[in-house]
Specification:
single chain, about 425 residues, mainly beta, Immunoglobulin-like, 6-stranded mixed beta sheet, 6 helices, about 40% strand, globular
Length: about 425
């Protein structure tokens, strides 16, 4: 495990040279529950408006009560999340390397941990440019080791977006797919060369494996740029996320079969999952998010919620495992890492895995991954046009002579109701 951890760190330190994209992820084994959102709202995507007073909230737990002198620095990124190469003085006001001063010890939990929090921008660090940012978490005493990454975006709105999702696609499989169409209103900011000056990034439920980048418009005019009926904008509808709650030791919550104490942790065994390809069933999910909560504590939820080993079990044919079956939800940080891979237990006839998670409510699904590292929900979860999904549209602008990708438009919408 230590060998693989060192390899990860080595690869990460080569990111700018190898032009690899930054992604929100955790590398250190003792860091858990990394959250990156807007102004501390658990369900708000990490996008803020430049110089608006809005903030990005980053928090995480380190599994001990021993104080760690954590610090962070910010990297400005291109539209594809690679290092933009800008000098820090160009995109920051203040010293880049900053200590994390806000931390809190867990209270009344079996697992000791310290919760660290920070907000950006703050009194020590201001953001001068729009675009993408990667926060690199380090230990002050070992700054060469990157412990975690937290990614967010900063918007300077220059144009507007009108978007819709419908079931009509050119694939002919319109019971399983959703078509995203959108139009950029550029009347307030003329875009002379949209084919070269604009970069478009599309995500479904914040997933990275099936994101669309480098999209070209269908047509453009003086005031509009249209992205409609494009095959690249056809997405699997998927299914509503599965849900479970581990908010209490005293009872089995939603989706939990039983809870047992096996020193030194509690263990929650979820109901056995099966394939969902018999038809769409509505469920009110949170599109992959998780929410930390201890229902037995009245206050200080983030420091009174304990850690529980959660055991997943999937009954599915062995043939589905040709390319790997993985857990997917915000708690996996869009990672197809082995710690989120389902492993075939021939004795039980199920794919199984266990993950250490903080008490709360969680969404998840099972993704089948192909050789190109793109995930599909269709083999296990099924795919239905009725499924409610969120779509995130990012529009970046770099005209001739500019040296960075400015984020000039951002829009979130639901396949059922515009957000």
């Amino acid at each position: 495990m230590m060998k693989s951890y060192c390899i990860l760190l080595f690869c990460l330190l080569l990111l700018p040279c190898a032009a690899q994209p930054y992604r929100t992820t955790i590398f250190a084994e003792d860091i858990h529950s990394l959250e990156v959102n807007k102004e501390g709202q658990w369900n708000a995507n990490p996008v803020i408006v430049l110089n608006s007073g809005e903030t990005i909230h980053v928090s995480f737990d380190q599994l001990s009560h021993d104080y760690k002198r954590y610090a962070y620095r910010l990297i400005h990124c291109n539209a594809d999340w690679t290092d933009s190469g800008l000098n820090e003085l160009e995109y920051l006001e203040g010293f880049s390397l900053q200590d994390i001063d806000h931390y809190y010890l867990s209270e009344g939990t079996l697992t000791d941990y310290t919760r660290y929090e920070l907000e950006l921008p703050n009194d020590q660090l201001k953001l001068k440019l729009s675009g993408n940012y990667a926060l690199l978490l380090v230990d002050r005493d070992r700054q060469e080791e990157i412990l975690a990454l937290a990614c967010f975006s900063v918007l300077e709105r220059r144009i507007s977006i009108k978007a819709e999702v419908n079931r009509s696609t050119d694939l002919g499989y319109n019971t399983a797919f959703q078509q995203l169409n959108f139009v950029l209103n550029t009347s307030a900011n003329q875009i002379e060369r949209p084919e070269s000056d604009l970069k478009i990034l599309i995500r479904q439920n914040r997933r990275l494996d099936n994101e669309v980048f480098g999209l070209q418009a269908l047509m453009s005019s003086a005031n509009e740029i249209r992205y409609e009926h494009l095959p690249e904008l056809i997405f699997e509808g998927g299914n509503e996320y599965r849900r479970f709650e581990i908010s209490s030791y005293k009872l089995s919550g939603l989706g939990v079969d039983k809870i047992r104490y096996e020193q030194p942790y509690y263990h929650a065994y979820l109901m056995e999952s099966s394939q969902r390809n018999l038809g769409y069933t509505y469920d009110k999910d949170q599109n992959g998010r998780f929410y930390v909560r201890n229902m037995d504590a009245e206050d200080n939820q983030q420091t009174r919620a304990d850690y529980i080993w959660v055991h997943f079990s999937l009954k599915a044919p062995e043939a589905l495992n040709q390319n790997g079956i993985y857990l997917q939800g915000d708690f996996t940080y869009a990672s197809f890492d082995d710690k989120f891979k389902m492993h075939n237990n021939f004795q039980s006839g199920c794919y199984e895995n266990s993950v250490l998670l903080k008490q709360g409510a969680y969404n998840y699904q099972y993704i089948s991954v192909n050789n190109s590292a793109a995930g599909s929900s269709l083999p296990i979860e099924g795919s239905y046009w009725e499924t409610e999904n969120e779509y995130q549209i990012f529009v970046y602008y770099r005209p001739i002579g500019a040296d960075y990708d400015a984020l000039i438009a951002y829009h979130e919408l639901s396949s059922q109701t515009d957000l």
